[in-house]
Specification:
The complex is a heterodimer of chains A (about 775) and B (about 150). The longest helix of chain A has 19 residues. By secondary structure, chain A is of the alpha/beta class. Chain A contains 27 helices and 33 strands. The N and C termini of chain A lie far apart (about 70 Å). Chain B has a domain of about 100 residues: Alpha-Beta Plaits (2-Layer Sandwich), CATH 3.30.70. Chain B is built from four helices and five strands. In chain B, the strands form two sheets. Chain B has a three-stranded antiparallel β-sheet with strand order 2-3-5. A two-stranded antiparallel sheet of chain B has the order 1-4. The radius of gyration of chain B is 22 Å and the shape is elongated. The interface between A and B is medium-sized, with 15 and 15 residues.
Amino acid sequence: MITLKINDIEVTVPPGSTILEAAERARVFIPTLCHDKRITPYGACRLCVVEDRKKPGSLIPSCFTPARDRMDIVTDTPGVLEAVRTQLQLILVNHPLDCPVCDKAGECTLQDLVIRYNIAEAPFGTDRFARYVDRQSPLIERDMTRCVLCGRCVRICGELQGRDELEFIHRGHKTVVATDGGRALDCDFCGLCVSTCPVGALNDKLFKDRSRVWKLQKETTVCSHCGLGCSADFHLEQGRLRRVTPTVFADGKKGLLCARGHFGWRAFESPSRLSAPRLRRDGALWQTGWGEAIEHAARALDGIRRTHGATSLALLTADHLTTEEARVCGSIFRDTLGCADIGSLQAAGYRQILSVLGAELGPSWEPATVTDLSEAEILIVLGGGAAELHPTLKPLVNGLMRKGGRELVVLSSWPDTLTRRATLALAITAGYAEDFFAELRDALSSERTHASADVARFGVDTCGLARLIALLGADRKTTVLVAPDPFGDNLQRARLAALLHDRARPILPLGAQVNSAGALRKAGLSSCGAAADGLTLIEAIEAGRIQALYLLGEDPLETLPEPARVRAALQRLDLIVCQSPYETAVTDLAHVVLPSALIPEKGGSILSVMGFENEIRPVLSPFGQCRPDREILRDLAGALGREDTPRIASPSVAQEQSGPARSAMPQDAGHGFSFRLTAVPSLFGDGLLSRQSPDLAQIRRGLRIVMNGEDFEQMGLGEREIVEVRTPNGSARAEAGHDAAIPRNLLLLRHAAGSAAGLSLIRPGTDVVPAAIARIGT
Amino acid sequence: MSKALLKGLALTLKTFFRRPVTVQYPDEKRPVPERFRGRPVLLAREDGTPRCVACGLCEKICPSLCIAVAAETGPDGIRALAGYTLDLNRCAFCGLCVEACPVEAIAMGSEYELAAYGREPLVYTQERLLAAPGRGAAPERMGEGKP
């Protein structure tokens, strides 16, 4: 430990701490402008200068000077104050004083410092350089006239998000922060640059000119776009949400958010929110009262159960219930109604992985925690799309890799964002990922040596495989992330993870919706029966076994492949109860529509994938006549009680481990289908909430197809050209893009969820389909 | 006794032929002093648009919370005024909004005849607050609220 004095206050800090960190511990204020605790110190603004009494006269930038033993630092000598004041005046030379129209006013670091150091005169009055304002980019406005060139956005984009979208352009006085060639932003839209900008140079367009920061009330809650449970600050003006920012924690460090968390909040007030209960009468949906709607739902559920038996009812949940609500839901559907088909479509992969892990490892199994992730020396990701499912993983992993000496192993059949950062990226031929995981598990468990002929089938680099085996055997802290495939099977990767867990590796299953972890691990609302998988559910409906479907925010029409077949199946049902916050495609087919509240409107316990339990309280008032799911379910239970429903003990359901028969690659390849298409998760969210945000829709830009650059060139396609994609199942129009990392003849289909045309391209039960592309008009 | 009466009559006679000092309000009005704090007015640019940039400082400083400023993004991409409401029911005529304004867009006017037949007419919107260009604190007549 190092002991030093800051303004005569003695502090002890761990070795490697900077003087700034020591000053913070001594509660001595040091002004900073270019410092953000999330990124490495840079020393650009020179406001954090201090003096060492032992070396009078020399000014030390405290943010990146390591503290040394027996230092005697002073922060308020006339020399230091003069330097800070001069530096602020120099910064103001190129900073307009348009605070009245700047949205940063009130929380601007520069404004605060200018007031604190009482800068009233501008001795260096030179002509300002004409700089531009980028208003073309979606969601983010870059006002370069206000930029003080601290480089925080440039560094956070490169270091944490790994995009390097922003960079310093030009030299000297002409320096600006810009994209290459000055084009509009086309990035992850994580908003980290906006969150770090100390002045008003980077603005959130959703917040711009809507309010003023001093009018806002900050409520810390949890982002509900995915299951990672990132902490988010909701800024409310008289009860109305105005913006969402990463939480500033007690130590002054800001958290991380992704595009969904930052810019997806208008989903809470989306025009597709359901505002009143509806009931189907004479073939049409009519608005009705709560009492009548719930009575009707209870009577219909009870009737179907009495005539067709308890097995005719299936429940699908989008996992946006709090743990308490999931418990109530389980007790009504499983214990009272005897429903044996429970599942989720959006979190199907996560639920499958968790059930396999639970079956193989026993109930005492615990997923990896944040500490396991941050202290891991080797990170192994099974499956592609980890950072697409949970985008905040990307800055987390990038931050981890920056510490050096770490290994990131990604085993994926398509180049996802983490692959680019991986120290060992094993590319598996698309469609063979599950087979490869099964083979790897066999090889690891029976210790048999592998014939290289087998490996060739998967297209995996043998040297890389040898290194993977070596890393798996290494005695280093290893954490395994399991990313499910959105439409394929996940059994083998889960079994491989279970095997690795036996060798004391913490496992982190991914792909959860907001409270999937709570529903499964706390409330026991795990998937069972045919509803565990979308395909088997549709088959059970087609076979006539399932007659009634209770949908908790879930929409099979917007999440399952082959929407035409799904629609036909749903139309066969006697009853569809749609308890959802949003009007989606399935609402039109529903018999009873019950508008439910969203997570920020209801509050309760939420369990994140990393096992962190959040107790949240309602921060928004319910939309329209929406009611929290717990109230709806409670009333439903009451109404069922009046129907005198006999309690049926939960039937013992055999866990369908194997799932439906799946083929790696359909046999009907060929016949003009020169490409293979695989649907991948979207960075901007495929979940119920993310799909409803108009701003995320703006950056999703609809259905997109990404292919190898050479294929793209060979076809003579233009940037963002709309092309016709054809598979044996259907065809759709999508925006074409290219990426050099994608293998030849592979197409990545993004944003299929929520798009009927996109879903019609895919075949259920398989992750790869043959495909062809044609230019429109040829 | 009669002396006192005569004294009084003399005074009456003396003032009887003088011009009266009473101002016959409301037929007659005295000019208001230069620094009079009448109803606040929004000042206009030459083209008749309000000078206000919608920064909201008047709203922030107002001790009686009577000002509400709504902003929007103007055609040039810069913050612009979307609506200005001043509730005279609450206004204390303290003039802090005028002091806070960074662009001299609001001034204390000279209008003081503010009585109305209800509370609603006293909630002034942007149109009624806006003075004609170049006529800062000029008095205005209010037509609303009269029977």
